[in-house]
Amino acid sequence: RADRYLLLRDKPAVTLDGVPIRLLGNIELAHEAQHCLDRGAEGVGLYRTEFLYLNKTADPTEEEHYEAYRAVILTLGADKPVVIRTLDLGADKFSSLSSSVAEEKNPFLGLRSIRLCLQRLDLFKTQLRAILRAATLGDVRIMFPMISTVEELRQCRTLLNEVKEDLLEEQVPFKADLPIGTMIEVPSAAILADLLAREVHFFSIGTNDLVQYTLAADRNNQQVANLYNPADPAVLRLIRQVVEVGKRKEIEVNVCGEMSGEPLYVPLLVGLGLRQLSATPRKIPEIKRVIRQLRTDEAEQMAQVAMQLETARQINGYLREQLRRIL
Ligand code: PEP
Ligand code: MG
Questions:
Q1: Pocket of ligand 1, candidates 24, 32, 50, 88: which has the most ligand atoms within 8 Å of its Cβ, to mutate?
Q2: Do the Cβ atoms of 68 and 84 come closer than 8 Å?
């Protein structure tokens, strides 16, 4: 079965009515960029750089960051995009750093991700320098995780500008005009998408956290797994709203949570208007297969029906039925 999907590698991800859907891969380690190419992804839609920190006794240096990014870019080639997400440490992702962070009762609501970076400017700036430098080698885009307010995004942009000035002063080569994006993975960010759109070139919806925070259900807690569902109508309304803002403000919207790697949800996401999905490389061939059997008008109709339903269970049932019909 896997081999049959691999035959799809060199075929385009395009719907029956000719609409291209950009498929990108999610990676955690530099060598996985090759897996993206092997499975037919058009680039890396999410590079989770915190894995440079995990299981290390010391924080990575600027050179270590740079070398990892360079390896990814060299693997992909200069024409394929890589979205480098800045450190998303804390909560479920720990490292050498955790010992220096005070213990928290609610780590998922605490000092994680961009919040930590905005307090640990030494770490953050080291990474930003490496990203700006690596960007001279290929199509690099930078993305900030866990943004929940407009101020945070503005702070990130200010810091990025400060780092550019430093590099300029030091006469270190870097690329100044790389695209900037934000994850939309906290409900406040989805609600304020129109305001955040003024600050960035693209959005990437992180459904893993968006589902968790929308339904107040820990993504790793089996006891509340019944609540944790990407097809929950509350989550779908937020996704729909973000896609609509993207259309209106003419900025790209991607989905990079596990939801986009589920064949079940692909027709719904396309029907809601998404034209870009980023998933674990292993899932890319299956997703492509669904896309190649889909018509966008049909997908739009499905999304419309799904959005009228009242529970995740009904929506999942409907989508399963539709997927069987399509494949
Ligand atoms: C997400 O939250 O959907 C996401 C892609 O980020 P991570 O899984 O790394 O938290
Ligand atoms: Mg996340």
A1: 88
A2: no
pLDDT in tens, 216-260: 999 999 999 999 999 999 999 999 999 999 999 999 999 999 999
Residues 123 and 117: beta-carbon distance below 8 Å: yes
- Whole-model pTM above 0.90? yes
Nearest Cα neighbor of 241 from 200, 272, 210 is 272
Catalytic residue list contains 156: no
Alpha-helical runs (H) found in the chain: 2-6, 33-38, 62-76, 113-119, 121-134, 150-169, 187-191, 193-196, 207-215, 233-249, 266-271, 284-292, 296-308, 312-326
**Cα–Cα nearest to 206, from 175, 238, 176, 174:** 238
Q: Is 120 in the pocket of ligand 1 (CB under 6 A)?
A: no
Q: What's the pLDDT tens digit per position in 141-152?
A: 999 999 999 999
Q: Report whether residue 257 contacts ligand 1, using a CB cutoff of 6 Å.
A: yes
In angstroms, the CA 151 to CA 5 distance is 44
Measured distance CA(200)–CA(182) in Å, rounded: 7
- Exposed / middle / buried, residue 100 (Cβ in 10 Å: 0-12, 13-18, 19+): exposed
CA of 85 to the centre of ligand 1 (A): 10
- Side-chain-side CA neighbours of residue 255 (13 Å): 29
